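Researcher: I'd like a candidate sequence for this fold, 168 residues long. If you have to choose between options at a position, lean toward the conservative one.
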């Protein structure tokens, strides 16, 4: 697997990150959560190396667009749809509890895009090194029409949620 990493057309920083994932068992892990929690090899890494595996700046800033730029279209669209649904749930909850602060949107927005940052490095590793196009257990999203329908419905739910909570 190391030879494959060296042959990839990615920066040296990504190659180092990919080798770190290999060293802690990334190719066998199904998710970043199962890879990092209770993993002695992960715990033995320096704080900087741990952070480089679970916290990326560019996905935090650009969200789904970062996934698209890395050619991980399916995961980018599914994550964007999930973020929209979670935002809708958050808006409904804050509306129901009569929380009238704009800060709620900024705080939750930061939390929502944090998902991209947390998953980004591992998803890119699985995409480039293991040729994984979609997460295990998300097989239904391997078809483009399903992804498109999911994103459109998620957007409609978000727009309807905003519409009804501001008009009532």
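Model: Candidate sequence:
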């Amino acid at each position: 697997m190391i030879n494959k990493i060296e042959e990839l057309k990615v920066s040296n920083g990504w190659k180092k990150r990919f080798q770190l994932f290999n060293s802690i068992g990334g190719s066998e892990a199904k998710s970043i959560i199962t890879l990092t929690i209770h993993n002695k090899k992960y715990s033995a890494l320096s704080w900087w190396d741990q952070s480089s595996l679970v916290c990326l700046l560019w996905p935090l800033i650009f969200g789904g667009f970062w996934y698209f730029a890395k050619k991980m279209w399916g995961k980018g669209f599914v994550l964007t749809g999930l973020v929209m649904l979670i935002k809708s749930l958050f808006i409904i909850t804050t509306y129901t509890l009569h929380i009238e602060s704009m800060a709620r949107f900024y705080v939750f927005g930061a939390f929502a895009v944090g998902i991209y940052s947390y998953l980004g490095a591992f998803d890119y590793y699985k995409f480039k090194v293991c040729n994984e196009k979609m997460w295990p257990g998300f097989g239904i999203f391997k078809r483009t029409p399903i992804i498109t329908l999911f994103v459109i419905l998620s957007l409609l739910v978000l727009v309807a949620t905003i519409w009804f909570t501001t008009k009532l």
